[in-house]
Amino acid sequence: xxxxxxxxxxxxxxxxxxxxxxxxxxxxxxxxxxxxxxxxxxxxxxxxxxxxxxxxxxxxxxxxxxxxxxxxxxxxxxxxxxxxxxxxxxxxxxxxxxxxxxxxxxxxxxxxxxxxxxxxxxxxxxxxxxxxxxxxxxxxxxxxxxxxxxxxxxxxxxxxxxxxxxxxxxxxxxxxxxxxxxxxxxxxxxxxxxxxxxxxxxxxxxxxxxxxxxxxxxxxxxxxxxxxxxxxxxxxxxxxxxxxxxxxxxxxxxxxxxxxxxxxxxxxxxxxxxxxxxxxxxxxxxxxxxxxxxxxxxxxxxxxxxxxxxxxxxxxxxxx
Length: 320
Ligand code: G3H
Ligand code: 13P
Ligand code: ZN
Known about the structure:
Layout (H helix, E strand, L loop, with lengths): L12 H10 L3 E5 L3 H13 L4 E6 H7 L1 H17 L6 E8 L2 H9 L4 E4 L6 H16 L4 E6 L3 E4 L2 E3 L7 H11 L3 E4 L4 E2 L14 H10 L5 E3 L7 H9 L12 H8 L3 E6 L1 H17 L6 H24 L6
Helix pairs in contact: 2-4, 2-12, 5-6, 7-8, 9-11, 11-12
Bound molecules: glyceraldehyde-3-phosphate, 1,3-dihydroxyacetonephosphate and zinc ion.
């Protein structure tokens, strides 16, 4: 058993309390390789933002969990070396079983999500409670979820949203003991959220209803990529074949971050940014074959994207 505290990581409790008070949200960025991690840490150090590093179960398989743990530990040292030791959370994204959550906790994660949102209500409560009881022994924070987001999530694809029912949140939070709650209010996973012409809408009215029932309780938004149109155009200009699609408008996310939303998950926008930069190098410099020559520009573009998110969307700059 390795405690996240030995790795220099923190859990999400204090970060969420400050975000709630300050009217901003903590960025939760997914990673599975070195360039992504470098970009996240450099962007968050330069904007002086706390950060949640997210690992999905797919990422854990891809990158190997031992390596991931050392990478997270390395991220703590890297931030110090860059001159500003920001608070860093290592979080399991969309944990689907007690065993996976337990394993991550034993491997140095400081926070886990147990996603029982596809289960019947009482089963979601029982599973979440079990994870909370285990995690809290080690001061690891737990995120639960109520309601189902549309879109692709690992291998699960839900076609429609099932919005979170405000009547359920108080009971769920009380009976599970979770530290934060992911809700479904119109965001969705993946790069293909809405077709151009559709009107994406975060249901701030449902969010308000939820806030009324659990005042001051940290809320999490998944599926919060905005699918920047200039990046999609760049991918296609350099030989990509991305379908037309739009994401969650950044102004709506900014509004949500000012409320009880304390954590905003962004993964797809980073994937798009990296892809655009790599495609550009491949087209403009077809003679290059050193991975640093295309992964370097991808890392730079990713860092710019994250800085923009921290400053203009989450409002987490200068909060570390
Ligand atoms: O919500 C899902 C995240 O974007 C992680 O995606 O399972 O493909 O790593 P992944
Ligand atoms: P996006 O696919 O919108 O980036 O959402 C990521 C996410 O919710 C990770 O849990
Ligand atoms: Zn998610």
